[in-house]
Amino acid sequence: MKEFVCIRCPLGCALTAEEKDGEVIVTGNSCPRGREYAVAEMTDPVRTFSVSVRVKGGERGAVALRVSVPVNKKFIAPIAEQARHTVLTAPVRAGDTVIKNAASSGADLIAVASVARE
Ligand code: SF4
Q1: DSSP assignment, residue 21?
Q2: Number of structural domains, the chain?
Q3: 57 and 7, same structural domain?
Q4: Is 7 touching ligand 1 by the criterion CB < 6 Å?
Q5: Exposed end of the chain (fewer CB within 10 Å): N or C?
Q6: Model pTM score
Q7: Could you tell me which of 84, 44, 50 has the C-alpha nearest to residue 67?
Q8: Measured from the CB, is residue 9 less than 6 Å from ligand 1?
Q9: What is the pLDDT of residues 9-64, one digit of tens each?
Q10: Residue of the CA atom closest to atom 2 of ligand 1
């Protein structure tokens, strides 16, 4: 059995979920969204997140990138590792896709800000 706090609304219901006979049984939810959340956390937990990468020749030395789509949380560490070894060259424009299919996750990394040449 796993315990979660539902983050789909500010109420923050305490959920429990367990798999029985191939079905996820959820308790503690006050509405159907809580069940959806718990089932997703049990079967395919995804996250939307940002990483920072270095930029050379720019007015700033780093820029944040966000994933283009939510990705399974098992890809967070590999994507962060890829970002740690990436150095972009200015200029970088907000909205640019700077890494395609990051860590083979299926998500691209998109610049969230612009960095002009220094
Ligand atoms: S289960 Fe429903 S009411 Fe409870 S926190 Fe989740 S979305 Fe909100």
Answers
A1: T
A2: 2
A3: no
A4: no
A5: N
A6: 0.82
A7: 50
A8: yes
A9: 999 999 999 999 999 999 999 999 999 999 999 999 999 999 999 999 999 999 99
A10: 31
